[in-house]
Amino acid sequence: MNNLVEGIIGERPKYFRAPFGYNTDFFQKSPANEKMLVMNWTYGYDWDEEYQDKKALTEIMLNSSYLSNGASLLMHDRKWTREAIEDIVKDFHKKGYKILDPKLIEKPE
């Protein structure tokens, strides 16, 4: 699969997120062999029907009990997420959180 992705975008994948967060032994081996960093999320809600609008998604992302320093937030490319992302980021900054540039994440060599 990585060869296919690399052929399309010109870059080999560096990160791996197991489907549905199932970080089983099976889903740990392949990324390790490919020198990919296994990533998971702390929380995300945009898949849940209850949060599929800008206001509800912004509210839960900013006030989740899972929000903490170092949290990794799961967000999908969905209409309501695109509509909410600017407010989410601005309000995270107001709360004193910073968004990490993914280029700063150390990857296996």
Structural class: mainly alpha
Query: What portion of residues belong to β-strands?
Result: 5-15%
N-to-C order of helices and strands: HEHEHH
Q: Find the count of extended strands (DSSP E, 2+ residues).
A: 2
Q: Please give the radius of gyration in angstroms.
A: 16 Å
Q: List segments where confidence is low: pLDDT < 50 over at least 5 consecutive residues.
A: none
Mean pLDDT: 91
- Sheet of most strands: 2 strands, parallel
As a percent range, the share of helical residues equals 25-40%
Gross morphology is globular
Q: Describe the strand arrangement of the main beta sheet, using strand numbers.
A: 1-2
Tell me the span between the first and last alpha carbons. 19 Å
The helix tally amounts to 4
Defining key terms:
single chain, 109 residues, mainly alpha, two-stranded parallel ribbon, 4 helices, 6% strand
Please characterize this protein's 3D structure.
- This protein has 109 residues and is mainly alpha-helical.
- Helix content is 39%, strand content 6%.
- The chain has helices spanning 2-9, 25-33, 54-63, 79-94, and strands at 15-17, 37-39.
- Strands 1-2 form a two-stranded parallel sheet.
- Helix 3 (54-63) packs parallel to helix 4 (79-94).
- The chain starts with a helix and ends in a 15-residue tail after the last helix.
- The mean pLDDT is 91.
Offer a concise description of the structure.
The chain is 39% helix and 6% strand. It has helices at residues 2-9, 25-33, 54-63, 79-94, and strands at residues 15-17, 37-39.
